[in-house]
Design a protein that fits this description.
By secondary structure, the protein is α/β, with parallel strands linked by helices. It is built from 17 helices and 20 strands. The radius of gyration is 25 Å and the shape is globular. About 55% of the residues are buried. Its EC number is 2.2.1.9. It comes from Actinomycetospora aeridis.
């Protein structure tokens, strides 16, 4: 067997022995040995292979799979720009703490920087976004070579999973392969070197033992009797199993936080983001907190950013720490102007919060919720509320990281029987369809996605799935307002910028989404929010379908301003 062919079989074999269940691959020439080995492992039932033609989508497919299964997912690509196309997914995996192994086939070192075709200096291409960049030894026909190959694979998987200490995330395994790439006979490894066949008990070459936490954070120094507000942002790693909060303490949570649907003893503020400006602008001084406890990474609301940057409010942060130890994930540094302390959550009995403040927030949130629900409207928030309400129990929901995730936070009623995902690591709209496909492949039940039209169109290659590829049950709700609806709510959406808005921010596209779906053989139907209970009913069959709902972005800014004014009125009245 040629060395490159043998090495590829060894690499894939070691992945399976280490617990890899899914791998994603894109066609290419330099990665041909790895593709052949992956196909053989898939046909033997040793792992599940997912082939995609677009590297960017392949990367986000791996992120979606990894976020649900908790396992490292290898993504195998050829050399050159194919590797660079994975950069957005690597950035998202890095900030989200999702284990991912970028396997980049490469030319041998003598061809790098020589002008050779399809060759770039790709080792270390992802910089600090990767937990590690490891170069596989060049395949050689020599005694003991396979032992080294297996050890390097084990090291790369350990770093990606964070098993022996560290934060899970992306790792690059750069694999230089010298021609000839494929043995014409393509025999299975059967050379005298026993390492080619691996350990006889099917165990991995290196057994990595999970490390205990490297340090125990001291409890946060909460002030007894202080007006305390909990802000729960993106990611669940800062909410460890067994967490409990004092009864009734107000909790303002983003939809991707576990506290959004289960405040763990606290009082969920479903309309809290509508109320917060009143506390910050002096309308309701009784709602202004003295200390804020931050769990996870707040990413959605400017009012929360203002809250955490207020020098008159003490901010105490609970960092997200990898289960096996390693560095805390610095999720709380993005928005906090000054964090006074970082530590663990104290025991609920040690908080002693101001209960009058807690009751005031509960009452204010209830008032705001009553106002918000008076007019369902035909905009993004109304669609978000209807979508979440229509989902079956046990569903996973992938929400676009632009307007839809904010709409869910502003308008939807939280549900403990629905898990919400969103690419809030870097908050890009890259690869959203592929991310949802990955979640559907990792979740045994029905998966749904709520995406804006531009986000959907940005990754229409995610609909391109070959006839032999595995499929999950995925329904994509496309909120079609013919452009970028979120910008209407920002500064550039003000009337003074109307002349430039449509071309450079609104970006109308006029795309026929039904025809686009037909080209991909994807089922499509148009619906209204009232149709969603029927349109989103589970089918029990694998495959992707698209439900297109037209909404009006032209009314979004005015509707938001009217709702905010109505909330202010409700909060300022004595009723």
């Amino acid at each position: 067997m040629f060395p490159s062919t043998a090495q590829a079989h060894v690499v894939v074999d070691e992945w399976v022995r280490a617990g890899v269940t899914d791998a994603v691959a894109c066609p290419g020439s330099r990665n041909a040995p790895l593709l052949v080995a992956l196909d053989a492992a898939d046909r033997d039932g040793r792992l599940r292979l997912h082939v995609r033609v677009d590297e960017r989508g392949a990367g986000f497919l791996a992120v979606g799979l990894g976020s649900v299964t908790g396992r490292v997912v290898p993504v195998v690509v050829t050399s050159g720009t194919a590797v660079a196309n994975l950069h957005p997914a690597v950035l998202e995996a890095s900030r989200a703490g999702v284990g991912m192994l970028v396997v980049s086939a490469d030319r041998p070192v003598e061809l790098v920087d020589s002008g050779a075709n399809q060759t770039i200096d790709q080792a270390g291409l992802f910089g600090e976004a990767a937990r590690a960049s490891i170069v596989m030894p060049l395949a050689e026909d020599r005694a003991g070579a396979a032992r080294t190959w297996r050890a390097v694979v084990a090291r790369a998987l350990d770093r990606a999973a964070g098993t022996s200490g560290g934060d899970p995330g992306p790792v690059q395994l750069n694999v230089p392969l010298r021609e000839p790439l494929l043995d014409p006979a393509d025999d299975a490894p059967g050379e005298p070197d026993p390492a080619l066949a691996g350990r006889p008990d099917a165990a991995p070459w290196t057994r990595t033992v999970a490390a205990p936490p490297t340090s125990t954070l001291a409890p946060l120094p909460l002030r007894a009797g202080a007006r305390t507000l909990v802000v729960a942002g993106y990611g669940g790693a800062a909410v460890p199993a067994g967490t409990r909060l004092p009864e009734g303490v107000p909790v303002l949570a983003e939809p991707t936080s576990p506290l959004w649907s289960d405040p763990l003893g606290g009082r969920a503020l479903h309309a809290g983001t509508w109320v917060l400006p009143a506390a910050l602008d002096g309308l309701r001084d009784d709602l202004r907190p003295e200390q804020v406890v931050v769990l996870g990474r707040p990413t959605l609301h400017r009012s929360v950013s203002r809250l955490l940057a207020d020098p008159g409010i003490e901010v105490l942060a609970v960092p997200a720490v990898a289960p096996t130890g390693g560095r805390p994930r610095p999720g709380w540094t993005d928005v906090a102007g000054a964090v006074s302390a970082v530590g663990a959550l104290p025991d609920p009995d040690d908080w002693k919060p101001d209960l009058t403040f807690a009751r005031a927030w509960a009452e204010a949130s209830d008032r705001a919720a009553a106002v918000i629900g008076q007019d369902p409207g035909k905009d993004g928030p109304a669609l978000a509320a209807a979508t979440v309400a229509a989902l079956p129990a046990g569903a996973h929901l992938v929400v676009g990281s632009s307007a839809p995730i904010r709409d869910v936070a502003l308008a939807a009623t939280p549900r403990a029987d629905v898990r919400v995902h969103s690419a809030r690591g870097v908050s890009g709209i890259d690869g959203a369809v592929s991310l949802a496909v990955g979640v559907s492949l990792g979740h045994p039940g029905p998966t749904y996605a709520l995406l804006g039209d531009l986000t959907f169109l940005h990754d229409t290659n995610g609909l391109l799935v070959g006839p032999e590829e595995p499929r999950g049950e995925l329904t994509i709700v496309v909120a079609n307002d013919d452009g970028g609806g979120i910008f209407t709510t920002l500064e550039q959406g003000a009337p003074r910028y109307a002349a430039a808005f449509e071309r450079v921010f609104g970006t109308p596209h006029g795309t026929d989404i039904a025809s686009l779906c037909a080209a991909h053989h994807v089922l499509h139907r148009r619906a209204t929010p009232a149709d969603l209970p029927d349109a989103l009913a589970p089918t029990g069959r694998p495959g992707t379908r698209v439900v297109e709902v037209e909404i009006d972005r032209g009314t979004r800014r005015a509707a938001g301003e009217l709702t905010a004014a109505a909330v202010r009125e409700a909060l300022s009245s004595g009723e």
